[in-house]
Amino acid sequence: MPVTPFHMGPAALIKAALRNKFSISIFSFSQVLIDLQLLFAMLGADIELHGISHTLIGATFIAIISFSLGKPICQSLLKYWNHSLALSAKNLLFAQEFISWKVAIFSAFIGTYSHLLFDSFMHADLEVFYPLQINNPLLGLISISNLHISFAIAGLVGTIIYFLSQYFIQKRN
Ligand SMILES: [Zn+2]
């Protein structure tokens, strides 16, 4: 399934641990970009399912696009998000609008490289090291359902930790 929400599970854990040093919006943006080829292929375009977008070369290129385009786009979206928050939800759901280049670059590369890593467990057609022909040792190591359950748990735990710490930080200030 293109643009699967499961990749967001580990991202929630990273966000809970790194807070403002990690941008979950840039990460999400990179998840959409890297699966665009798959989406077009599923819509009937005459291209490979994962192909070049799911190689180290492609993921590097997509990470560069993700932080260059993603920084201004995500900052505008976050600004809009903060403005549309109800006053009662402001403390808990307020998101930092400014994303530094350092955070944008870091989050984009974590986004595309972790995407390759997790997809490697699931998809037989991935050629991560293209043009080198190296067998994928991760394929089938964990069943897809176990992988999805772990991602869902990571997402739940990460979200709870994030909002709990957000609550205590707001309370302290
Ligand atoms: Zn993918």
Question: How many separate domains?
Answer: 1
Q: What percent of the residues sit in helical stretches (DSSP H or I)?
A: 55-70%
Largest sheet: none
Helical region count?
Answer: 7
Hetero ligands:
zinc ion
How do the helices and strands follow one another from N- to C-terminus? HHHHHHH
Shape from CA axes? Answer: globular
The average pLDDT score comes to 92
Structural class: mainly alpha
Low-confidence stretches: none
Task: Summarize the model shown.
The protein contains seven helices and no strands. The protein has helices at 8-18, 24-34, 36-42, 56-84, 90-93, 101-122, 144-172. Helix 1 packs parallel to helix 7.
Question: Could you characterize the architecture of this molecule?
Answer:
This protein is globular. It has seven helices and no strands. The chain has one domain. The longest helix has 29 residues, at 56-84. Helices cover 65% and strands 0% of the residues. It starts with 7 loop residues before the first helix and ends with a helix. With 173 residues, it is mainly alpha-helical. It has helices at 8-18, 24-34, 36-42, 56-84, 90-93, 101-122, 144-172. The structure holds zinc ion. Zinc ion (ZN) binds at residues 34-35, 38, 54, 115, 119.
